[in-house]
Design brief:
Elements: E1 16-17, E2 22-34, H1 73-85, E3 93-94, E4 97-100, E5 110-113, E6 123-128, E7 134-146, E8 150-152, E9 161-163, E10 170-176, H2 183-200, E11 212-222, E12 232-237, H3 240-259, E13 267-272, E14 277-283, E15 293-294, E16 301-302, H4 305-313, H5 319-330, H6 334-340, H7 344-354, H8 359-376, H9 388-399, H10 405-418, H11 422-428, H12 437-450, H13 452-460, H14 465-475, H15 482-492
Bound molecules: adenosine-5'-diphosphate (ADP) and magnesium ion.
Adenosine-5'-diphosphate is lined by residues 26-30, 175-178, 217-219, 228-229, 231.
Length: 495
């Protein structure tokens, strides 16, 4: 297990003050992560998002009689990679079960899932809550299952439509223990899982497209007690902002029910983003309601330890480890390291710039100049107009004294809009710091001669010296090295 990388400092208990006492909320998540595969879990149909309705449907997905599911080995591999990335035990033996229910967008009349023998056992992740500490969230298991289709109720006033494109797409359901204690922790847990899966390449984590969704289980209990309260499950959420609103609303609702002398009924609820409330959808269903049984169309899945070990050896460096390495190797702060490693691409970009240069300066430039500009223009690092190589060259021009910090920023803007080699652009636009003492001295003398009264004042009052630094910078079109100018001005004034 690579859990040695983030020191655990459990956040302080979060207390909710009720009317009659203090409460704590308890949250567990069931996260549905769509496997980043080109074809479905048991059929060769495409998983492409946004295709015309019912164009990505194989006979298997439409449940035509006599069709048999064929397992997609790539999806199995992605689930194993995800399990390894979450420090989970990989089960070499797993089985697929049928979960029986009727819904118009489920032509089979059952969903193929894994109840009794899921593909992974328990795992653990660390969720950094910024200044509030690092929370350990245990993973109960991951199982694979088919997604259902989509019923469309808003296309016609009288009719509903069914789109089977999503039917049979592979989902990994990641189930956490009830280890989460606040809405922010729930959001951060989802974002951490998303980040890990994006590093692994096993799930795109695009919440708007629905390829990462969560069922959120919420209960409350009196502060400083250990037993779990009765929970409600809020279904199918795909926004971390709504998840936080839903948890807050739901915890307060349950507290009000209990303080009013009632009891919380275990049930499935829906969040309404328009009202910010949750409402009852159905009473809680139990596993036996679904008449689960092993799918007779599929053999048990047996993995070889060697194959799993091969996948493990091939895992990329994951965020926790990357952060601690960046802190050590480049001497940057943990918060900066966390920002640089948010995405694998930005971490790679940083390393390409920092290699053989001042790590802190590279981090500052990427976070402040590059990320700042990318954010402003809603771009990602992938389509950054300035490459790591170009930023590296700009930094080199600063460190060899050719450019002042100010000039370097102007050059960055030019590279951003015009492209090209920074050194050549600087040359073409006459961006060059004046560093030879003679010329600067000359400019300083001129400024002092041109303003004899100010010079007189400045001799007795060092604070007026700034005026001359400004004059010299102006006279040299901002090209004089400001540190040298300031030194010379002060020397000439006798300070
Ligand atoms: P089920 O078998 O009904 O699906 P599980 O035991 O698998 O229930 O739990 C489902 C999810 O609910 C898990 O994420 C778990 O952490 C969470 N959970 C279970 N009990 C509670 C509780 N009392 N409060 C909050 N979350 C809970
Ligand atoms: Mg469950």
């Amino acid at each position: 297990m690579n859990t040695d990388t983030l020191a655990v400092t459990e956040p302080a208990p979060r207390v909710i003050h009720g009317i009659k006492g203090n409460w704590e909320m308890v949250v567990g998540l069931e996260i549905h992560a769509q496997v980043a595969s080109r074809s479905k879990l048991f059929s060769p149909a495409s998983t492409e998002f946004g295709a015309a309705p019912n164009t990505n449907v194989h006979l298997i997905d439409a449940a035509m009689p006599g069709m048999l599911p064929v397992i997609n080995a790539f999806c199995i591999e992605q689930a194993v990679r995800t399990g390894l990335g979450l420090n989970a035990k990989i089960n070499l033996y797993s089985e697929f079960d049928r979960k029986n229910y009727f819904y118009p967008d489920l032509p089979q009349g059952y969903q193929i899932s894994q109840l009794y023998h899921p593909i992974t056992g328990p795992g653990i992740i660390h969720v950094d809550m910024g200044g509030d500490g690092v929370r350990q969230v245990r993973i109960d298991h991951i199982h694979l299952e088919q997604d259902a289709g989509k019923s469309l109720h808003d296309m016609d006033p009288e009719l509903s439509f069914v789109d089977l494109n999503r039917t049979g797409v592979a989902l990994m359901e990641i189930v956490t223990f009830p280890d989460i204690r606040s809405p922010e922790e729930a959001a951060d847990t989802i974002l951490k899982l998303r980040q890990i899966m994006r590093y692994l390449g096993t799930c795109d984590g695009n919440m708007q497209n629905g390829n990462l969704r969560a069922d959120v289980n919420v209960s409350v209990r009196p502060s400083e007690t250990d037993t779990l309260g009765t929970r409600c499950e809020i279904k199918n959420m795909n926004s971390t902002r709504f998840i936080q609103q839903a948890i807050t609303y739901e915890a307060n609702r349950q507290i009000a029910v209990i303080e009013d002398g009632g009891t919380v009924t275990q049930e499935t609820r829906l969040f309404d983003p328009n009202t910010g409330r949750t409402r009852s959808m159905r009473s809680k269903e139990e596993a036996h309601d679904y008449r689960y049984f092993p799918c007779p169309d599929l053999l048990p899945l047996r993995l070889e330890q060697e194959w799993v070990d091969g996948i493990k050896a091939d895992l990329p460096e994951l965020p926790d480890r990357k952060i601690s390495r960046f802190v050590k190797q480049y001497g940057i702060g943990k918060d900066d390291a966390a920002r640089l490693t948010a995405e694998r691409k930005s971490a790679d970009y940083f390393e390409a710039v920092a290699q053989g240069r001042d790590g802190r300066q590279a981090a500052n430039w990427i976070i402040n100049e590059l990320f700042g500009r990318l954010n402003k223009e809603s771009r990602t690092i992938e389509d950054s107009p300035v490459s790591a190589e170009q930023i590296g060259e700009i930094l080199d021009l600063i460190s060899d004294g050719s450019l002042s910090g100010r000039m370097a920023k102007d050059l960055f803007d030019r590279v951003w809009s015009e492209g090209g080699r920074p050194a050549e652009l600087a040359e073409a636009h006459g961006m060059k710091q004046m560093t030879d003492t003679k010329s600067i001295e000359h400019a300083v003398d001129r400024a002092l001669n041109d303003h004899p009264e100010q010079a007189e004042k400045a001799r007795s009052n060092p604070r007026v010296a700034g005026f001359f630094v400004g004059q010299v910078m102006k006279a040299t079109n901002g090209q004089a090295n400001p540190t040298m100018v300031s030194e010379l001005v002060n020397r000439k004034l006798g300070h």
